[in-house]
Automatic annotation (TrEMBL):
GO terms for cellular component: dynein complex. Residues 586-745 form the Dynein heavy chain C-terminal domain. InterPro entries: AAA_9, AAA_lid_11_sf, DHC, Dynein_C, Dynein_C_barrel, P-loop_NTPase. This is Dynein heavy chain. It comes from Chrysophaeum taylorii.
Length: 750
């Protein structure tokens, strides 16, 4: 074994001596050149990285995986568990194993010596005695192994937990754990202990993934398969209700919820479905898994919240960041994640004295000091040579990119993550000061308070809250106000927000009980669940096959093709989608959340292909659809296209089939009135739905006087389509004209 790849390697290969070299993730180019030695040389490269990067032009390298397998993990863990629970039993097992090995070796020697032996009888007797001893040892070993197997379930579980622990390196290369140190744990096989101790070194975004993996160790296999993949059915389930998607319905059928599906409708539309009382099942592990599967199947957007609840109920609350516990559990080395080393101030004890890393570590180990590494220079070897009898307070802190830290160091180090969270804690005085400043800037835009806030924030860390109120209101902000009335209002606001004797803050502004920055952001920006719902429920593409070649069929096929292009664009560029560029698809004034809901309804209309009644808002070009209806009538009757006009009777009878002429159209909204008994009324009514209207082409339109030609728009005041004649009721048409009464295919949204 050599520590360098220079002259010692050349000498070893020349002499034909086997060479063992430990390398990192990639082979150094200089070393790669030296590996091109005579074919009879024996060079072994050992690495702890799973994927060793070998030079492309080197065909003489064979890669062998000698990492521990599940069975080997179980056996080593079984020995450890039995040693802790029944030390005498494990000692007997070890002694018997040694006796068996020695007995088999002696038998092999006797077999080799039998033909050359001068005393064959003596050799035979010795061989029979050893065979008897081996047989007795095997019988004793069988009984001991039977007792040891009582602890095998614990070893199997501990092996699974370590495999989960070892798989964390796929999330972050920093998450490296030593199996030898895992064996020293006092709680092998305890998921809660592994979760609590490991989470201190995990980033917050990775804790839920790790906790969920631990919780699913005991879950039924079919439940785990469902959580990972959902329903595996390849057929479309029938009788789907109109309020859920096809995927959700398939999942509901697989979970056995289809028999009472209507009972889940209200829960399905709940903004906090994961915490709904509908899911209050009995408190046991089976119910927790079932609850998680229901949320996964019907409301996948709520799955992270449900998973957090599941992990907390199974393993306990998230331990979070605990520097003291991390320090106590560490032996010598701690790795700091997400720390900027440039923020560390270094104070030299002896000016002008420069120590190399080995000397610095040796001196600190004797004195019980701390050493911080912010560079890889001299990092590897000194840490491997830390003496075992060093001062108990001695620690080595490492703040580097994970890829620059040797795996052997990471495996034996305690990882610390989330250290910046306490720094982000906002004092109770700063949060109300922010509200105070925001109210002033919104009320008096003529005054520029920008620099005043920065100054007040600095004073907030110096003065008590009561004194801060006087400094802020009488000195800092008041210096810019010239109007006495404005100054009076300023003092009132300072009492509301900055006075300890003022009424509770909840009466004027929300103040969360927690002081962390995330809770404050939730209050400030009032996050809502709809964005996640809209993102998850993006419809699947439509089937482009349309039967028939009539003008209406052609328009329907064009609409389907256009919606598929919209869905493809949204899937590719959804993070870039904003309220502005969604309007490029078709006219709409809906906000983004409502726009996606409306898109879902449009797509589902064309997916259903139930054209007895046409939902007119689904068409991105309704004028083309109406023109297609006129073309169909013109071809059927022989009347010229230009000679046709429209009649708009209101449909009151049940609809069983599509009309022979024109089409039944639904989905129209009436703004500034409502329709009762076929006539307009209530001129101050905001928006009301219209009944089904028969858009009927005719050449003999009855010319009734006093009808109100109500304009039809695709959205409020945008994209005129056609004028629909409506009965004005008790008011003359001029009333509806001044009220700007109109028909809409799309409103303002939620």
């Amino acid at each position: 074994v050599i520590e360098d790849s220079g002259d010692a390697l050349d000498e070893a290969t020349t002499r034909g001596v086997a060479v063992l070299i430990e390398v990192g993730e990639a082979i150094d180019p200089a070393l790669a050149q030296r590996l091109k030695s005579p074919k009879d040389s024996r060079i072994f490269l050992v690495t702890k990285h799973e994927q060793l990067r070998v030079p492309d032009d080197d065909d003489d390298v064979s890669v062998l995986d000698i990492s521990l397998r599940r069975s080997e993990l179980e056996e080593r863990l079984l020995r450890t568990v039995v040693s802790k629970e029944q030390p005498a039993l494990e000692r007997q097992a070890t002694d018997l194993a040694a006796r068996l090995v020695a007995g088999r070796a002696r038998l092999a020697d006797l077999d080799d010596e039998f033909l050359q032996s001068t005393d064959v009888l003596k050799t035979a007797k010795e061989r029979d005695e050893i065979l008897r001893q081996v047989s007795d040892a095997r019988e004793a070993q069988r009984k001991i192994n039977a007792k040891r197997d009582e602890y095998r379930p614990c070893a199997i579980r501990a092996a699974i937990l370590f495999e989960i622990l070892d798989s964390l390196k796929q999330l972050d290369p920093t998450y490296q754990y030593s199996f030898d140190e895992y064996l020293e744990s006092d709680c092998l096989g305890d998921s809660k202990h592994v979760y609590q101790t490991t989470c201190r070194g995990l980033a917050e975004r990775h804790r839920l993934v790790f906790g969920l993996q631990l919780c699913l160790v005991d879950a039924p296999r079919d439940a785990v398969e469902f959580l990972c993949h959902g329903s595996r059915t390849t057929t479309i389930q029938d009788n789907k209700p109109d309020w859920c998607s096809q995927d959700a319905w398939n999942n509901a059928c697989e979970l056995g919820l289809d028999a009472k599906v209507e009972e889940w409708k209200e829960w399905y539309h709940s903004p906090s479905a994961a915490n709904s009382e509908k899911l209050l099942l009995p408190n046991n592990s089976e119910s927790e898994i079932k609850r998680l599967c229901i949320v996964r199947g019907l409301r996948i957007d709520q799955f992270p919240e449900a998973a957090k609840r599941f992990v907390a109920a199974t393993l306990g609350p998230d331990p979070g960041f605990d520097l003291l516990e991390s320090f106590k559990s560490s032996k010598r080395v701690l790795v700091l994640k997400d720390v900027d080393p440039s923020l560390v101030h270094r104070l030299a004890r002896d000016l002008g004295k420069t120590l190399e890393p080995p000397e610095r570590i040796s001196e600190a180990a004797d004195a019980g000091s701390w050493v911080l590494f912010t560079t890889t220079t001299g990092l590897y070897r000194p840490l491997e040579k830390i003496p075992s009898n060093c001062h108990p307070d001695f620690r080595v802190w490492i703040s580097l990119s994970p890829t620059k830290i040797p795996i052997s160091v990471l495996q034996h180090a305690v990882k610390i993550s989330g250290g910046r969270a306490p720094v982000m804690m906002i004092p109770q005085t700063v949060f109300p000061l922010c509200w105070f400043h925001s109210v002033l800037t919104r009320r008096w835009r003529a005054y520029d308070f920008s620099f005043d806030f920065e100054i007040a924030k600095e004073f907030a860390s110096i003065y008590e809250k009561d004194l801060l109120r006087h400094v802020v209101s009488d000195v800092i902000y008041a210096g810019r106000i010239t109007d006495p009335q404005d100054l009076r209002v300023l003092h009132v606001y300072s009492q509301i927000f900055l006075d300890d004797q003022a009424p509770p803050p909840e009466e004027f502004y929300p103040c969360p009980s927690k002081k962390d920055a995330r809770a404050l952001l939730d209050v400030l920006f009032d996050r809502h669940q709809n964005p996640t719902v809209d993102d998850v429920e993006l419809p699947e593409p439509l089937d482009t096959l349309v039967e028939g070649d009539s003008p209406v069929d052609i328009v329907v096929a064009q609409e389907i093709d256009y919606y598929n292009k919209i869905l493809a664009t949204l899937r590719d560029d959804l993070p870039k989608t904003t309220d502005d560029n969604t309007l490029l698809f078709y006219p709409s004034v809906k906000p983004l959340g409502s726009w996606f809901k409306d898109l879902h309804k449009r797509v589902e209309f064309f997916r259903a292909r139930d054209f007895k009644v046409f939902w007119l808002p689904a068409f991105t070009n309704p004028r083309k659809f109406l023109s297609a209806l006129l073309v169909e009538t013109s071809r059927a009757t022989g009347v010229a296209f230009d000679a046709l006009t429209w009649d708009f009777p209101v449909v009151t009878d049940p609809i069983t089939q599509r009309p022979t002429e024109g089409a039944y159209c639904s989905g129209l909204l009436l703004e500034g009135a409502r329709l009762a008994d076929g006539a307009l009324c209530d001129p101050f009514f905001p928006i009301s739905p219209m009944p089904v209207i028969h858009f009927k082409p005719t050449t003999k339109k009855q010319q009734q006087k006093g009808l109100y030609a109500c304009p039809l728009y695709m959205c409020p005041r945008q994209a005129y389509v056609i004028s629909v004649d409506l009965q004005p009721g008790q008011h003359p048409p001029s009333v509806w004209i001044t009220r700007a009464t109109a028909l809409l295919l799309s409103d303002y949204g939620d």
